[in-house]
Amino acid sequence: MRRLLENTGAVLRRELGRLAHQPMYFVLMLLLPAASFAFFALLFNEGAIRNVPVAVLDEDHTALSRKVTQMIDDTPTALVSYGVQSMDEGERLMREGRIMAIVQIPAFFEKDILSNRQTHIENYISGTNITVNGLLSKDIQTAVTTFSAGIQLQLLMKQGLTERQAMAQLMPVRFDRHVLFNPHINYGYYLSPSFMPMMLMIFTVMATIFAIGTELKYGTSREWLATGGDSVAAALAGKTLPITAAMFLMSLVMLVVIFKIVGTPLNGSLGIILAGTLLFVLAYQSIAVMIVALLANLRLSLSIGGGYSVLAFTFSGLTFPIMAMWEPMQWVSRIFPFTFYTDIFVDQMLRGAPAVYSLPDLGCLLLFVVLPLLCLPRLKRVATEEKFWGRL
User: Fold this and answer.
1) Considering the domain 52-170 in this protein, what is its CATH number?
2) Taking every annotated instance into account, which residue ranges of this chain make up the domain ABC-2 type transporter transmembrane (predicted)?
3) What is the pTM of this model?
4) For the chain, which terminus, N or C, has the lower number of CB atoms within 10 Å?
5) Which residues of the chain are in CATH 3.40.1710.10 domains?
6) What is the mean pLDDT of the chain?
7) Measured between alpha carbons, how far is 383 from 292 in angstroms, rounded to an integer?
8) Using CA of residue 142, residue 146, residue 148, residue 152, what is the dihedral sign?
9) Where do runs of H (alpha helix) occur along 96-175?
10) Which of 29-33, 160-164, 235-239 has the lowest mean pLDDT?
11) How many other C-beta atoms lie within 10 A of the C-beta of residue 162?
């Protein structure tokens, strides 16, 4: 064990010297992660979708039609930016991307209401953005429903009912909705803790592949291995330790940005999140080692590593639930450590789940960490045989 530590220390000193003379390490491990964290913090500064522009085609021009327009404008999501004179004008604005919805209030709107005749309001929403579509539909429908309920309430009270009796008749069954864990529907609360770790993951993979791949590219891998006393375990540990330390340091910066700047609540255990973050970094370093050991090609390894990393977000279940995926795709989602890390983050950050519920996810991350043990013989071979050297 002592000799292993001495060999690891020798490789570590060699690697620190290489880091000082390779600006790309500084870019991959410090500059780009910090820039990406700042970018996403600014991107999700608003937190929730607000003031989406809509157009209103008011064909009635009465007090009640203006009241409906005002109620739609008062919703959190919709902003009445245009008062159009025809559907053709509204369609043109929508095709130009200047509005996301058109609300049409028909002629004789107020007259029909005062005559106790049924009328209608039509709403045309662009389906190009599913999130905006859902929020606009909900808020506009709520505004119109509230307006309609107010009209019905006044009519019932004019018939001699008290306000309490009128409300009971108008709404015999009341539906109470309680949004748990993220009641403000703040997108920053779940997108920041997903996009920022994704950037951390990408740069971890790229830096690790670059560190080992350049040894093969420039034919210095035998020297690297010899520095570690021909122990591939010591050589790999000394090579990856600086990257582990740098990326874990950047992960701490990431957590400060998420919890202090974005303002994401922390309802669970910070210790579990820190342990999961360290295993997350180690897991993706392990995958990067396996990729470069199997391919022995710097350019191809960087391409495969980048593609694998980016796919993780698709299968994480953050935007499309894993339980709703086709069953084979549910199994595919398990080959990404990001899936288990986001489970830990959501459980401990928003849900405030007991720490025991995150232990299985921590165990899965630990399984990814031991992957290099399977490819150490292959890594030693590509590091010592010249036919694997010099590839781009």
Assistant:
1) 3.40.1710.10
2) 26-373
3) 0.85
4) N
5) 52-170
6) 89
7) 11
8) positive
9) 109-114, 130-158, 163-170
10) 160-164
11) 10
